[in-house]
Design goal:
This protein is an alpha+beta fold. Helices cover about 40% and strands about 20% of the residues. It is built from 13 helices and 17 strands. It has helices spanning about 10-35, 35-60, 65-85, 90-115, 145-150, 150-155, 175-180, 195-205, 220-225, 265-270, 280-290, 350-360, 425-445, and strands at about 125, 135, 160-165, 185-190, 210-215, 245-255, 255-260, 260-265, 300-305, 305-310, 315-320, 340-345, 365-370, 375-380, 380-385, 390-395, 400-410. Strands 1, 2, 3, 4, 5, 6, 7, 9, 10, 14 and 17 form an eleven-stranded mixed beta sheet that branches. Strands 13-12-11-8-15-16 form a six-stranded antiparallel beta sheet. Strand 9 and strand 10 (about 305-310) form a beta hairpin. The protein is globular.
Length: about 450
C-alpha cells in the first residue's frame, strides 16, 4: 500500500460520514422493524440467490427450462419488493440502502485521498518532437473517426507521413510499419482499433521506436489505460509537438503481441462461430449451454507460478492485471508497467456458485493470478482464442508471456489522465482515519 500522507480535515470528516451512514443504515432497519429487520435481510438475500440461480439456469438450459429460469430471475426481485411493500417497510429498506451506498462511497473516497499514490503513476520523460513520424490510419475504425475528426489532414499539417489503409482489400499493417522504419521513420503511430495498434506496437518495440496511440477505435481500451482523450482522437496528435514518453509492457501469446488481453474458453469459442457476426445474441444463447457445462469445446487447464486452474469455462490473460474489486473500475488496469500478466479464470458449475458471485463471495468461482508466464493447455490439439479482438485458433499448449517495458509510448503532455484508483473498502482504515480526527482535536484542545 502506498504511504499515507497528512489527511485534510475534509477527508477526516468524510471518514466520519462513512461511519455515521453505515451506523444509520443499520439503525433505520432496527428502529423501523425491530427483529423483523433480520427477516428483511434474509428475504433480500434469498431474492438475490434466486435471481442468480435463475440467470445461471437460463444460460445452461434451452427451450422451456430456459424460459422458466428467466421468469424466475425476473420474478424473484419483484416478489421481494412486493413483500417489503406489504409489510409497509419498503421506505425503510430504501433509506437503509441509500445510507449504506453513501457509507461505502465515503469509506472508499477518504482512505484513497489520504494516500500518496505517486508510486502508482507511470514515470515519464520529456522528449523532442519526432522529425519523421509515420502514422497508419484505418478510415473505417470507430465508425469513421479518421474522417470525422480530420485526422489525416491534421497529422500531415504537423509534419507526419500518413498511410491511409485501403479498406477494399487486406493490407499487411506490420509490413507497412517495417518499411517505414527501414526508410528512416523515427516514430510509428496508429489511428485504429486495438488489434491494429498491437500489430504496429510489435514493430515499434522490435525497432525500439516510440509509438503513438490515436484513439480512433471503437472501445480504445489501450488508450483508456494510457489516459488519452477517447472522445476527441485529434488531441492525441498533440504528442507530435508537445509529448512525453513512457515505457509500458507488452503481452505475447505464442509470440504474437497483444496490448490488452487474450481470452480463452466460452467467449473465444462463441466468436469463432461463423454465425456470430450476423446474430451475436442468438448465437451466444445457442452455444453457451454446451460450453458452460463442458459438453462442447476443449477442457482448459491454466498454470501460472505453480498454481493451476482446472477446467475453467473462461480465461482472460491480460497485459497487466485488470481491476475486479470495483464495478466503476472494471475493465481498467491500474498500471501498464508492473511487469506481470493478469489472469482471471471463471469456474461457475452450479447455481450456488453463480449466486456466490452475485453476493460477492467469489473465491470458489473466480480465480485471480499474477505471473510473468502463463500456460493454457487443453484436451484438444487447438484452442479457440480471442487476441486483440480477433478470433484465432492456436495450437495447444498456448504460452503467454510479459515483456516488461518493451514499448516506448509517446503521449501528449496535456491529456485527461487515468481515473484515480480507489482501494477496496476497508472499515478498519476508515475507523483509524475518523479516530485521528478526534485525537487531533483533542491535541489542539490541550
Amino acid at each position: 500500500m502506498p504511504p499515507a500522507t497528512q489527511a485534510s480535515p475534509a477527508l477526516r470528516w468524510t471518514a466520519r460520514l462513512a461511519l455515521a451512514s453505515g451506523t444509520g443504515a443499520m439503525l433505520v432497519l432496527l428502529l423501523s422493524a425491530g427483529l423483523e429487520s433480520l427477516l428483511l435481510l434474509a428475504v433480500g438475500t434469498i431474492g438475490l440467490f434466486l435471481t442468480a440461480a435463475g440467470a445461471w439456469w437460463a444460460l445452461v438450459h434451452t427451450g422451456p427450462l430456459r424460459v422458466a429460469a428467466a421468469l424466475l430471475a425476473l420474478a424473484a426481485p419483484a416478489v421481494v419488493v412486493a413483500l417489503y411493500v406489504a409489510a409497509g417497510l419498503l421506505w425503510a429498506v430504501l433509506v437503509s440502502l441509500a445510507l449504506w451506498v453513501l457509507a461505502v462511497y465515503c469509506g472508499r473516497v477518504a482512505p484513497a485521498d489520504a494516500l500518496d499514490d505517486s508510486r502508482a503513476r507511470l514515470p515519464e520523460r520529456p522528449v523532442a518532437p519526432p522529425r519523421r513520424p509515420y502514422l497508419i490510419m484505418n478510415p473505417r475504425s470507430g465508425g469513421g473517426k479518421v474522417g470525422r475528426f480530420r485526422l489525416q489532414e491534421r497529422a500531415r499539417a504537423l509534419g507526419a507521413e500518413v498511410a491511409v489503409l485501403d479498406v477494399t482489400h487486406q493490407q499487411d499493417v506490420a509490413a507497412l510499419a517495417r518499411r517505414a522504419a527501414d526508410a528512416g521513420a523515427d516514430l510509428l503511430g496508429v489511428a485504429g482499433g486495438d488489434g491494429t495498434q498491437a500489430l504496429v506496437a510489435a514493430v515499434a518495440a522490435e525497432r525500439d521506436l516510440p509509438f503513438l496511440v490515436i484513439s480512433a477505435g471503437t472501445r480504445n481500451h489501450f488508450a483508456l489505460d494510457l489516459g488519452l482523450d477517447r472522445d476527441d482522437p485529434s488531441r492525441c496528435l498533440d504528442a507530435l509537438t508537445d509529448g512525453v514518453e513512457r515505457r509500458v509492457d507488452l503481452g505475447t501469446v505464442n509470440g504474437r503481441v497483444f496490448v490488452n488481453n487474450a481470452s480463452f474458453g466460452a467467449y473465444a469459442a462463441v466468436v469463432q462461430s461463423p454465425a456470430y457476426r450476423d446474430d451475436k445474441v442468438h448465437t451466444t444463447l445457442q452455444m453457451l449451454p454446451d460450453l458452460l457445462t463442458h459438453q462442447h469445446g476443449p477442457r482448459l487447464s491454466v498454470s501460472a507460478e505453480g498454481t493451476t486452474i482446472e477446467q475453467p469455462q473462461a480465461v482472460l490473460v491480460s497485459n497487466n492485471p485488470y481491476r475486479t474489486d470495483d464495478p466503476a473500475g472494471l475493465g481498467r488496469r491500474e498500471r501498464l508497467d508492473s511487469g506481470v500478466l493478469g489472469v482471471i479464470g471463471a469456474q461457475v458449475d452450479s447455481a450456488a456458485q453463480a449466486a456466490d458471485m452475485l453476493l460477492g463471495r467469489r473465491a470458489r468461482s473466480l480465480s485471480q493470478l499474477m505471473a510473468r508466464e502463463v500456460m493454457v493447455d487443453a484436451d484438444a490439439d487447438t484452442i479457440p482464442a480471442g487476441v486483440n479482438g480477433e478470433a484465432l485458433t492456436l495450437p495447444a499448449p498456448v504460452r503467454c508471456r510479459i515483456q516488461p517495458g518493451a514499448l516506448r509510448v509517446r503521449v501528449p503532455r496535456d491529456r485527461p489522465g487515468v481515473p484515480r484508483v480507489r482501494p477496496p473498502m476497508d472499515w478498519r482504515q476508515v475507523r483509524r482515519l475518523a479516530r485521528s480526527t478526534m485525537r487531533t482535536a483533542a491535541g489542539h484542545g490541550n
